[in-house]
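Sequence in, structure out. Go.
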Amino acid sequence: MSTASDRKHYSMIIDGKSVEAQSGLTFETFNPSKNEVLATVARAGKADVDAAVAAARGALNNAWKKTSAVKRTRLLMKYAELIQKNIDELARLETMNCGKPVWASKGELTQGIEDFEYYAGAITKLTGETLVMPNNLFAYTTREPVGVCGQIVPWNYPVMMAAWKLAPALAAGCTVVLKPASATPLTALCLAELALEAGIPAGVVNVITGPGAEIGAYMAEHPGIDKIAFTGETETGKAIMRAAAGTMKRVTLELGGKSPNLVFEDADLAAAVNGSVFAVFYSSGQSCEARTRVYVHEKVYDAFVADFIAKTQKLVVGDPLHEKTQIGALISDAHLRKVHGYVESGVAEGARLECGGKKVETGDLAKGNFYAPAVLTGVNQKMKCVREEVFGPVVTISPFKTESEALELANDTEYGLAGTVWSTNGARAIRASAGIKAGLITVNQPFTGFPGVPFGGFKQSGFGRELALETLKLYTEQKSVVQWVGEKPLNPFGL
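Output:
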C-alpha cells in the first residue's frame, strides 16, 4: 500500500482493479485542518455503479459463495493482520482526511481490526436448526448470504464505519459495493487494496467514490443490489428507505442522535464530569451517539457545571497530527458555520454561552476548521440547539429535580440512539437504563462501541444493529426445508 504522502490521486477499486470513472471525471478531497487539497479522486457515475454491482454479482456466484466458512475465517484474520501492519500510515491518512486527532484514528483502526477478528471467529458459529415435525416429515433451516450489499458510510468515522460494515458482510458470504463519503474516501480505498492483498477474491470488495445524491441514491434503487446498509443523517436514511422499497431491498439504517446524559445526585461527580466531557467532545462532537444533552440533578448542578466548564477549557485544540491534541478540526468550513449557527441561535433564544463557541483564529489553526468547544446553559426543551442534532462540539446542560423528570427530559426527542447514566445507586442505574428509550445505554462510563455489543437506535435513529452476532444474521436470509422421509411416497389426492 502506497503511503499517503506520495499519493496525489486515488482511483476506484472495481473487480480487483484500480479504475477511473468511465466519464473521466474526478473531484478533490481536502485536509480540513489546513483547508488544502489532499488528493484527487475518481468521481463515479451510474455506469460505474453498474460495473461495481456486476463485479460483485460475478464474485458472489463464481468465487465467494464457494469459499468455505473456515477459509473465510482465515482470510478475514489475514485482512486484520494487514490492517494492523499498516495501522500507522492508515491512521495518518485518516487524520489528514477527516481532521480528528491521530491517536483517535489509531484507536478506531484498532477497533476495526477487532471487528474483523470478531466476525472471523463468528463465521463458523452461524448455524441452522433442525425442527421437530410429525408424521415422517423432517425440517431444518439454513442461512444463506443476502447477496450483493451496497454499503454507504459517513465522513465522521470513515475507516471504522467501513470495518463495521465490511466485516459482517464478508463473514456472511456477501459481496460488497462500498461507497465512502466524498469528504473522506481515502482510507476506504486503502481497505479495498488490503482486501486483495489478503487474498479475498477480486470483486468481493468494490469501492466507488462520488456524490451520495447521485450514486448513493442510485445504489439504493439498483435492482442488482440485494441489501443497503447506511450510516448517516436521518433525512437521508428516509430517502434511502423510499428508494429501496421499489426492489424490496433489505435495509439497515444507523442514523442521527440527540443523546441524553443523566447525572444523579449520588454520582461520582469527578468521574461524571470527566466522562461527560469525553462523551460529547470526542471526535469534536461529530458523533451520532454524542451525549449532547446533559441533565444534572439540582443538588449537584452548580458544582457539575463549574467543573465541566473548567475541564472543557483545558481541552487541547490543535494540529490533529500532534499526539497531545484532543480536539481536531471539523470536516469543513461550511460545517463549522452550521455548528456555529446552532450556538448563535441558542444565545438568541436566551441560552448562556459559558465558554468556547467560536472559530479558533490563532496561528496556523486559523487556516483550518477548528472550533472551540461550547457549553450552553439556561436552555429549555424548545430551543433549536436542544432539539436538533448539532454534530459538533456543542453541549447543553440543564437541571432536573426528580428521577421521573430526568427520564421525561431524556426521552423528549425524536431520536433514540444512545444515553448515559451516572449514579452509584445500582437500582437507580437499572431503572434509568430501562427508562431511556434508546438502543444503547452506558452506565458510569462514556464508551459505546464494542465488538459483540449491539449498536443501533430506536425511533428516528434507525433500525438494525451493528457490531453484534445479530448483524451477521442481517446479512443472511433464512431458508426452511421440509422433507418427506416416510417409507412410501406421499399421495395427498389419492391418485
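Check: The chain has two domains: 4-255+461-480, 260-443. The mean pLDDT is 97.
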